[in-house]
Amino acid sequence: MSELTTKYLRAEKARGTSCRGCGLRPAHHKVLEAIDRSGLTLADIVWGTGIGCSGRQTYATWKGDTFAGTHGRVYAMATGLRLALPPEKKIILTVGDGDAYTIGLQHLLNCARRNVGVTVVVLDNLGYQSTGGQYSITTPEGSVTDSSPRGTWEQNWAGQGLDVLNIVKEAGATFIARHTVLEGDAPVSSIAQALQNPGFSLVQIVYPCVSHFGVQTLGTRSVPEVYKWFESYPLSTGILWNSIGSRPEFSEAFRQQNNNIKNRKQDV
After folding, report:
1. Which of 61, 91, 198, 222 is most exposed, with the fewest beta carbons within 10 Å of its own?
2. The CATH number of the domain where 51 resides is what?
């Protein structure tokens, strides 16, 4: 275990559940690096998890306060917590591509619309790998998967001018970034910036799956071969949108509205 996992994660959970060669464990570590760089402590953060591979890897690993929600509900739970917690408390949500962009999309968009003060880290392995390797809306077109034995043919939301992060931007998010897990310090830097945003932030980290995507789509379980393909996978990465401070944060606006109503009653 690294110094950071010892510092922040429960000993019995720190190893995680990801398969051999999976990029999820290093992606999880990128979040810890960003927390450490930001000077945040266990008491400063409440960590929520979604479902799928990302949920199992990060569920109840944080030594501090944690919670879990299924099928997109983690955003609604985080919204309630944001109203109940002091503004300086940070809320981090680690979710998968399904929990963010398909079954959980409506909840995610409402969280962005309200500009709720949370940092959503989408850990995207290019498919529904935890249930056998079915294709998702971020799976590269033409991929052979458990649910597309002749290759995917539907337009996805990750290429050819269609990008789900554009939808998240239009919904009202005030910070959006995308990186691969192989980009070194870049995802750490973006997550650290996201944590400083009082409003809604989303950072997508794309990582390789060896057990399903590697075997089914690439025809190999060789970790070096899967990672070599992954390095050449074309993605628009970096900070894609930054409008921090352009909109009031939800809980702040909520409290202001309450004060306005109280003042009106006093004036009557």
Report:
1. 222
2. 3.40.50.970
